[in-house]
Amino acid sequence: MHIHRRWSGGSRKRLHRLFLLLGLAAGALAPAGLSGQQGTVRGVVRSESGVPLVSAQVLVVGTTRGVVTDGSGRFSLSDVPAGPAVLEAQLIGYETTRRELTVGSEVAVVDFVLRHAPLALDGLVVTGQGSAIERRRISTHVDVISSAEIEASPATRLDELLQSRLPSAQIRMTSGQAGTTSLIRTRGLNSVSSNSTPVIYVDGVRVDNLNTAATLSLSISGGRHQGAATSALADLPLDNIERIEHIPGGAATTLYGSDAANGVIQIFTRKGSMGPTRYSAETTIGFDTPTSEFHFFDRTKELLYRTGLTQSYRLGADGGTDRFTWNVSANARASESHRKEGENSSIGFRSGFSAQAGDRGRYDASLSFSQNEMPRFRNGNSGGYNSLWFVEGGRSFAFGFDNDIDALDDGEWNRLLDFVNRAEALQDYSVQVRRFMSSHAVSFDAPGNLTFRSTVGLDYRVSTEQAVTTNEFLIHTQSAPAGTSDRGSIQNYDRKFLGLTFDASAQHRLERGAWSVVSTVGGQVFRNEDEQVAYAAENVRDGSRTLVGAGTTTSSDYTSRVANYGAFAQTNLGLLGRYFLDLGVRVDRNSSFGESVGSQVYPKVGLVYDVTAEPALRRMLPESLVTQFRLRGNYGVAGNFPRPFANDRTVSFSSLGGDQAATFGQPGNDDLAPERTSTVEVGADLGLLSDRVTLGVSWYRALTRDALMNAPSPPSAGEGSQLRNVGEIENRGFEVQTTVVPVSRPGLRVAMNASFNTLKNEVLSTGGTPVFNLGGLSSRTIQAVVEEGFPVGYLRGPSATFNADGTLDEVDYLSYLGKPHPDYFGSFGTTVDIGGSLTLNATGDWQVGAQAHSFDRHFRFNYGLPGDDVPEAAVEEAGGPSRIWLDVFNLFVEDTDFVKLRTVGATYRLPESWAPGRFRDLRIGLQVVNPWSWAASTFDPETDLSGAIGQGAASVGGFNYSTDTHPRSFLFTFGMGF
């Protein structure tokens, strides 16, 4: 009830006003009525087990008439010409179905039952080709996440949603704090200078995908790259998404240019559907409880954590005519942090519409706004008081407590509890993000099977991070003596990102007998502007949240503007509907390239052979036995940008004696070019027993040439290091994904899916560049480094060996200790549909073959807590733990194999007879997030704070360092339509 009282004031009033405005907007957009009707067709689209299908397309064959099903699978088509007609229903992941009927003056009712077809090749996809094209024609695998999967997920951010749903990708949430960064790997690590996050588009507009700390940003850890940085993925709106498409880097991403080596994610939002205005409402309430299985001390949970209430509300409306459809939605969410202090909150609005312009043109638009507010908590070895290091790292001894907190008597425990409660309440670190996105697309179907399309849009994101450190906090945590009044401080970090996208293309389709040709040409311009300001104050009075009146103030700024210009051409040739050849090329120019580089050319070629389309083979192997069998292969090149200004020669200025002093800056590199990742991929897609068993297998080899590395200049030049194209990195592996449907009959369907991936990563060459650090601490301790002949970011540090009696034998201070990325990883899931009303689902993922270092366990040893990590004889010989702890890093590196259930849930659709009045589609759901996990390590292997050293730089992981693990959430949802 506590959070209800907090929401009953201003926040709830703002929420009511938001929903009131939404209702007024929906009423204004609602059509007054449909005129000139010749006939109306209504119905419901369901799966073979009876589940209503959302966002299925229902078309009148031979016309432009079409509609999309609503949240209960219903559709209504008006103004259908009287007489015989053929209706077609289609949805990605299902077999296209047609029904014949006669349209008259009475309303015709036609229902569809679509059969699941995971390898359905007639479905249209966009990603990888730039324009819509049938899946059977493309030479690589495209993962598609449907609207039903998105709505069933309890995820509140994009990377959480994609976790365990992209079979060829691995996504790890590196901190339990809301809105923080993740590690995303698709086909390994192909760069040591740039982050591995894919390029992301929303309705054709490229958006901010910064998934590392910004250049000027809040640091609440020992090193900025070890902290819980805020991610731009966390505030991408998830409402009203029709589908998500993902494609790995390499051949399929050539059309996206010099920053697509890590793959592409495309998000497509709904634009409404024809029919009367429909409303929907949904509320979710539940609680987040800490996961304590990875805590060393039993009392850590009671000391730092709580069970926090969470609630969210969503209201939406859509409708339209045959000329104009629209969709609007609003949402609000608030949750108590699973830490003892702090609340997370967010509000959002999204709208989309589609308008017919004449007989051949169409205008599609979308816009969204969101605001998120989140607290932050100190982590890592940040000095002074840090909650988890204080407790789990054994640092509490420095504050006058026995650091074996499970052994404290009641008096000492209560003293520790009071100290921590006050320290937690006095922490004041926060993040606020506001984001506005808009997309506008115009398409025109010209005579002669020629389609023109143009998209323009923007992504504008403003974030503010603030750290307020009061004198009271410093005194309480013993960082300042009693009576201190002049050491309070305020730090502010503002970042404004503006991304502009312009895309234009033309597609031509030609059918000539056995031949079919789909050709596309186009161009793209995108421009990113990143402006950052840091302003701080010292000697701030307690109670102030502004810099006015502070004793001293300082400021700094950072600005970058990057523009990319690209043009592409491709053609897809088909013969007899079973042989396909895909050819394409892209040319790019970018402001980050050196002056002598010029344009970059990225080619691709692909081959597809649909074996089951061979008449002779089809006669031998009936469709009921081998439904589909397709062979594919491709080769292509994609790239990674150099960081902004990396090609420029600079002079550094600093203050000296009240004047400016100039020194050598960056040497500059006129030959600086993007990294080029060439990918060879071969694979097969197989469907057996009417697609009751499907299998997709791919083998790939991705070779990054011209890898960007910070290479030293010749000693005679008297200059520092410079980013140069000198390296070579290889990734190779297998990708296997399968779906098995052991039961499929009316009223019951059981489907199980799984994926298995292998990964071999190696730095083939560094071009003579010395070993350098990507994360970790100093070279005397442990680091994630880059060295020729080893995996990217392998762990290097002191490794001790011992004699038979336990005494120290020798120490190798530059030893290989493990690697942060796994040899094998995958995902799994199960869905059970019962009677068209009850749906049960579960998702999870796993990994094997990676390692990470536990700083918490290492510090517990150093601070004298009981344990058998190091032989007792070696400790006694050295004179105590603090004399030997820097020599034994190998003893605190652990395997990070794990199996995790991500979600387990159930959704029940209530009978329609239970819905009063105009209400329909009543449903209730229960979801459990992070219900169970097993790990080989003593710490949570997913919470990994080894981030990028610089903005957008490589992030590899490998270190667990006083990091919050993710809470376990129990959520109840009630939704309805009316």
TrEMBL record:
<comment type="similarity">
    <text>Belongs to the TonB-dependent receptor family.</text>
</comment>
<keyword id="KW-0798">TonB box</keyword>
<keyword id="KW-0998">Cell outer membrane</keyword>
<feature type="domain" description="TonB-dependent receptor-like beta-barrel">
    <location>
        <begin position="398"/>
        <end position="853"/>
    </location>
</feature>
<protein>
    <submittedName>
        <fullName>TonB-dependent receptor</fullName>
    </submittedName>
</protein>
<keyword id="KW-0813">Transport</keyword>
<dbReference type="InterPro" id="IPR037066">
    <property type="entry name" value="Plug_dom_sf"/>
</dbReference>
<feature type="domain" description="TonB-dependent receptor plug">
    <location>
        <begin position="136"/>
        <end position="264"/>
    </location>
</feature>
<dbReference type="Pfam" id="PF00593">
    <property type="entry name" value="TonB_dep_Rec_b-barrel"/>
</dbReference>
<dbReference type="InterPro" id="IPR036942">
    <property type="entry name" value="Beta-barrel_TonB_sf"/>
</dbReference>
<dbReference type="Pfam" id="PF07715">
    <property type="entry name" value="Plug"/>
</dbReference>
<dbReference type="InterPro" id="IPR000531">
    <property type="entry name" value="Beta-barrel_TonB"/>
</dbReference>
<dbReference type="InterPro" id="IPR012910">
    <property type="entry name" value="Plug_dom"/>
</dbReference>
<dbReference type="InterPro" id="IPR039426">
    <property type="entry name" value="TonB-dep_rcpt-like"/>
</dbReference>
<dbReference type="Pfam" id="PF13620">
    <property type="entry name" value="CarboxypepD_reg"/>
</dbReference>
<keyword id="KW-0472">Membrane</keyword>
<keyword id="KW-0812">Transmembrane</keyword>
<dbReference type="InterPro" id="IPR008969">
    <property type="entry name" value="CarboxyPept-like_regulatory"/>
</dbReference>
<feature type="signal peptide">
    <location>
        <begin position="1"/>
        <end position="30"/>
    </location>
</feature>
<keyword id="KW-1134">Transmembrane beta strand</keyword>
<keyword id="KW-0675">Receptor</keyword>
<keyword id="KW-0732">Signal</keyword>
